[in-house]
Amino acid sequence: MRTNLEKRILHGILILSINTLAILTGCSNSPQDAAKGGKGKDSTVTAANDHGPHDKTIATGDSKFAWKPPVYDSTKKYIYLTFDDGPQPPGTHQCFNICKELGIKATFFMVGQHASSPHLQALVDSIREGYPEILLANHSNTHASNHYQYFYQHPQMSHEDFLVAQKKLNVPYKIIRLPGNSAWVREGEVRASKLVKPVCMLLDSSGYNVIGWDVEWNFNHKTATPVQSADAMINMVNVALQRNETHTKNHVVILTHDRMFRHPSDADSLRKFITELKANPNYVFETIDNYPRLKTPSLEAKQ
Ligand SMILES: [Zn+2]
Predict the structure, then answer these.
(1) 81 and 137 assigned to the same domain
(2) 125 CA distance to ligand 1 centroid (A)?
(3) Once rounded to an integer, what is the mean pLDDT over residues 139-157?
(4) Residues 49, 69 within the same domain
(5) Same domain, 198 and 248
(6) pLDDT digits (tens, 9 = 90+) for 14-73
(7) What is the pTM of this model?
(8) Fewest C-beta atoms under 10 Å: which of 163, 166, 204, 220?
């Protein structure tokens, strides 16, 4: 016969074993598992994406763009992976396919003039049709012709340039990234350098959100290939979140460019970056329309 003390000790060991097992199982979301690409419960902003009844739903003829205010899980940290300057095949295809394959959400900020043929317009269409996993957003019509100073010193002209891109690319939400400049325009906020503030004020009054970035995956300007390794980028993302060095606490916006990942070895680097971040159970990939405090986005997509 066991004494009561022995029984209590055995009971304690049993509970401890069950808890340990639960923790190990919870951590089994290994890179290998993630690479299999199951979408599963990657997103915890499900309330923003299901299409059930919701008081604040902004309705449209195309129900997949019915925007709802995001709901965040306070135990999670949110990653917004963004690709700029597309459509630029084959990089755009590579990035799109990798996101789909790994079952993560991402945003493509595209340039109106880069959609210069029916084939490229079709590529923009496929990005738009990728919602809610993939979001199409506005990165201007001309990309400032890469003369940023001149572009931003003429705010009426640059404002018009964004409106042209919005229409031409049929961008669903009023969400912009400025070419060559990190600025933020959200509900009750215009955070911008002196150069871009005038166009940001105009965009704000036209109901647009402007999204900057926290972490950039740089590219070599001669070869358009990534500068940092996947490991270095993973570390930068972890550190930015840990040290609260992001524009919004627990939300990190990552800037990359489609064309950087056109070569298979660089595509593998992107795959590794996403896979390892996705394996962290505290991280959630989201599209940028789920970023905090955006103005209620007006829907622009054709009905
Ligand atoms: Zn750009």
Answers:
(1) yes
(2) 19
(3) 97
(4) yes
(5) yes
(6) 444 433 333 333 333 333 333 333 333 333 343 333 333 333 444 444 657 877 889 999
(7) 0.80
(8) 220
Q: What's the one-letter identity of residue 100?
A: K
Q: How far is the CA of 164 from the centre of ligand 1 (A)?
A: 16
Residue 100 CA to residue 257 CA, distance in Å, equals 17
Q: Are 175 and 297 in contact (CB under 8 A)?
A: yes
Top pLDDT among 127 and 57 is at 127
Ligand 1 centroid – CA 287 distance (Å): 18
**CB contact at 8 A, 233 and 273:** yes
Which two structure tokens, joined as six digits, stand for 78? 């949110």
CATH number at residue 157: 3.20.20.370
C-alpha 33 to ligand 1 mean position (Å): 33
Distance 180 CA to ligand 1 centre (A): 6
Give the mean pLDDT of the chain.
84
Residue 1 CA to residue 46 CA, distance in Å, equals 53
Q: Quote the ligand 1 centre to 205 CA distance (angstroms).
A: 23
User: Does residue 148 carry a pLDDT above 50?
Assistant: yes
> Which two three-digit tokens encode residue 27?
């951590």
Q: How many separate domains does the chain show?
A: 2
Q: What does the alpha-carbon distance between residue 177 and residue 87 come to, in Å, rounded to a whole number? A: 15
140 C-alpha vs ligand 1 centroid, how far in Å? 9
Q: Residues within 5 Å of ion ligand 1 by Cβ?
A: 84-85, 179
Within a 13 Å sphere around the CA of 20, how many CA atoms are in the beta-carbon half?
Answer: 6
Provide the domain limits for residue 6: 1-31
Helix (H, G, I), strand (E, B) or coil at 164: helix
Based on the fold, state whether residues 10 and 135 are members of the same structural domain. no
Residues 24 and 75 in one domain: no
